[in-house]
Amino acid sequence: MPSATASDLDALLPQTQCTRCGYPACRPYAEAMADGEAPINRCPPGGAATIAALASQLDTAELPLDPACGSEAPRRIALIDESVCIGCTKCILACPVDAIIGAGKRMHTVIAEDCTGCELCIAPCPVDCIELIADPRPDTLALPAHQRPETPLFRQRYEDHQQRETERERAKAAKLAAKRREMLLSNASDTLAAAIARAKAKKQNLQ
Questions:
Q1: How far is CA 35 from CA 63, 64, 68, 70, in A?
Q2: I want to staple 81 with a disulfide (CB 3.0 to 4.6 A). Which of 19, 42, 129, 173 is the partner?
Q3: What topology does CATH give the domain 6-69?
Q4: 45 with 16: CB under 8 angstroms?
Q5: What pLDDT shows up at residue 133?
Q6: Rounded distance, CA 13 to CA 171, Å?
Q7: Are 71 and 65 a contacting pair, CB within 8 Å?
Q8: How many C-alpha atoms does 191 have within 13 Å on its Cβ side?
């Protein structure tokens, strides 16, 4: 059987982007498995079904879920208690798929159909106003993660999020570089003006 590619393995992951596998997202974990650097049993959201699919793809034996990564459980989504939310935006920054909307000092809301249940928004919340509730898509949860219709949408939302973050960082870097150039030009102008003033003063002293 040909070696599985990272894309082959990524297609079998639930795309929750929860980082419980020890990697920053599903794709890096898939790349590590394709390179033989990570075992197939580190995905609690995918659970036994995902492990079985990965084992079949890699033509290897199935393994029990690594307890160090967490335990398999029904998928849940985040819910924000809007009466307690202080609008700090920490949950928005933590969400890997932009499933939380809101503005600074304004209450935030989770878009239920876009939430992957990654839980990454919970720890940063300073007022503990986020809880997990049952996923509203019970009909699809009976399917293995890679067969659920929302899974490719999760992947696309994560990729879009990453692209926006990259563009934001690029714009920030460009703005910083422009500011540095402006400071250098200003300093050079001040240095030149001072040098001219000294030269004029010296010339007047010689006259």
A1: 18, 21, 21, 23
A2: 129
A3: 3-methyladenine DNA Glycosylase II; Chain A, domain 3 (1.10.15)
A4: yes
A5: 95
A6: 32
A7: yes
A8: 6
Higher pLDDT, 142 or 165: 165
Give the contacts of 150 (CB within 8 A, at least 6 positions apart).
113, 137, 140
User: What span, in angstroms and rounded, lies between the C-alpha atoms of 159 and 28?
Assistant: 13
**Is the Cβ–Cβ distance between 117 and 124 less than 8 Å?**
no
Pair of tokens at residue 198 = 């000294």
Reply yes or no on domain 76-147 having CATH 3.30.70.20: yes
Q: What is the pLDDT of residues 14-28, one digit of tens each?
A: 999 999 999 999 999
In the chain, what is the greatest distance between 2 CA atoms, to the nearest angstrom?
Answer: 96
Q: Is the pTM here over 0.90, yes or no?
A: no
Based on the number of CB atoms within 10 Å of its own CB, is 179 exposed (0-12), middle (13-18) or buried (19 or more)?
exposed
